[in-house]
Write a structure and sequence with these properties.
The structure holds 2 protein chains of 2 kinds. By secondary structure, chain A is mainly beta. In chain A, about 10% of the residues lie in helices and about 40% in strands. In chain A, the strands form 6 sheets. Chain A has a 4-stranded mixed β-sheet with strand order 5-2-11-9, with no helix packed on it. In chain A, β3 and β4 form a beta hairpin. Chain B is mainly beta. Chain B has 2 domains: about 90 residues, Sandwich (Immunoglobulin-like); about 80 residues. Chain B is about 10% helix and about 50% strand. In chain B, β10 and β11 form a beta hairpin. The longest helix of chain B is centred in the first third of the chain and has 16 residues. Classes of the chains: A mainly beta, B mainly beta.
Chain lengths: ~250, ~200
């Protein structure tokens, strides 16, 4: 009891002393929020925390880091949460907020840059938030029509390949020739793609009959994301491969 | 407090006297990691010069059979590589040498460099401009009169498929050659593969 009383008195004295110093404001320690953004190549990113918005301009030399401090410091005990403006990285699905063109920037998860983008000021000696940006990539997919033979392999150049299995009847296990979907992974923004038949199925000949920019399975990937959510990133899904039975 | 110091001392002493008793094989730390750019059988890894571990399909990770105890030394090396990797030194182990603890055993990876083979396209009868050919993400604008286009290298045993992205003005070009006669195939172990583009 005695000790705790003494403690309170000391605290009071400290408060009085501080106030008499003047200009100390509330007397709480404040912390600048330091930010580093890696690999931002295109304009548009806005990072926000505690009511402050900072647009992030790509560096003059591509690949250089962009560093800045938020204009106001946060007080000891205050929570900061640095996210792309309007974003919510803890929601499901994630809201990505105001991102740059063609890229998505997220908190860096690689040691030693993997510092929290949200925490309470004072938990760490200094506040450092690190973001890293990556080019967006979108699915490349389509449909195979009339496939009954096994062995069909499709490729997107040397980037990806996939074996397509014919649809089968659930009771007889015989191929039905029904439409089968395929996926050739993802293609980065502004990269070209070209779907080709790598191997023909047994007893059939397949060809790419529709889809892509040129209607023959080739094109250049454009952005299909929206500003708030990459889950809407449909990519190119209209590639059509049509298979016919070989003569005889 | 006293007893724990004593116990630690006794254990350390016991270890010093008979290291093998404390060493690998009986611990609870599993030595694992990811592998990158491996497409076929043949990659064999070793820990401390033994415990051979083959990386098998789907070629994404490895796990050594013997378990480690805390503070055991591990040193992962490459014993042999798949046939489409030129040298043992082309498969590089990252963070493969350390003393075992929950952090160090989660940081290991092996990345291989697959041998690249040349992919060449011969172009016939191209008299106008505008032709664009692609092998997936590898894009080439082809000007009138061009007879040869050197495409980016392709992984040995990897697929390729050359297609026309944009036809030239007033002409139609058709892709032939390659493994399947239509500009696609699997890159073999020979140095050159030639695909043809014929315009009319």
């Amino acid at each position: 009891m005695k000790f705790s009383l003494a403690h309170k008195a000391l605290a009071l004295a400290a408060t009085l002393t501080l106030a008499s110093c003047g200009g100390g404001g509330s007397g709480k320690a404040t912390y600048p929020i330091n930010v580093k953004v890696q690999n931002v190549l295109y304009p548009g990113l806005v990072l926000s925390t505690n009511g402050m918005d900072v647009p992030v301009t790509p560096p003059a030399k591509a690949g250089d880091d962009v560093t800045f401090k938020f204009p106001n410091e946060v007080e000891y005990g205050q929570v900061y949460n640095v996210v792309p403006k309007g974003g919510d990285l803890s929601s499901s699905p994630v809201k990505y907020g105001t991102q740059p063109l063609h890229q998505t920037c997220l908190p860096n998860t690689n040691y030693p840059d993997s510092l929290p983008h949200t925490a309470t000021a004072g938990q760490l000696a200094t506040i450092q938030v690190n973001y890293v940006c990556a080019l967006n990539s979108y699915p490349l997919a389509g449909t195979v029509k009339g496939l009954t033979g096994t062995g069909l392999q499709l490729a997107n150049g040397s980037t990806a390949s996939v074996t397509v299995v014919p649809a089968t009847d659930s009771t007889t296990s015989k191929p039905t020739g029904a439409d089968t979907t395929f996926s050739l992974g993802k293609v980065y923004w502004n990269q070209t793609y070209g779907v080709t038949i790598l191997a023909q199925p047994a007893g059939q000949t397949c060809s790419v009959t529709a889809g892509g920019d040129n209607g023959k399975g080739a094109g250049t990937m454009q952005d299909t994301n929206t500003t708030s959510s990459l889950t809407d990133s449909t990519g190119v899904t209209n590639i059509v491969v049509t298979c016919v039975n070989n003569a005889g | 407090m006293k007893s724990s110091i004593l116990r630690a001392g006794v254990v350390a002493l016991a270890c010093a006297l008979g290291l093998s008793a404390c060493g690998g094989g009986s611990g609870d730390l599993t030595l694992t990691g990811y592998v990158y750019n491996v497409t076929k059988d043949g990659l064999v890894l070793q820990n401390n010069g033994g415990d051979d571990t083959a990386v098998t399909s789907p070629y994404t990770a490895f796990q050594f059979g013997s378990r480690l105890s805390n503070d055991d030394s591990f040193n992962i090396t490459v014993k042999s590589v798949p046939s489409n990797v030129a040298n043992v030194s082309d498969c590089v182990v990252a963070n493969g040498k350390a003393r075992a603890n929950y952090y160090t055993i989660g940081q290991i990876s092996v990345t291989c460099k697959i041998r690249q083979r040349a992919l060449k396209v011969t172009v016939a009868n191209l008299t106008t401009s505008g032709l664009v050919i692609v092998n997936g993400a590898d894009r080439h604008d082809v000007t009138a009169g061009t007879t040869t286009v050197q495409m980016a290298g392709v992984n040995e045993d990897g697929p390729y498929g050359v297609t026309v992205l944009t036809q030239p003005t007033g002409q139609t070009c058709t892709v032939g050659g390659g493994g399947n006669g239509k500009g696609s195939g699997t890159m073999g172990a020979t140095e050159d593969t030639t695909v043809t583009v014929t315009c009319a």
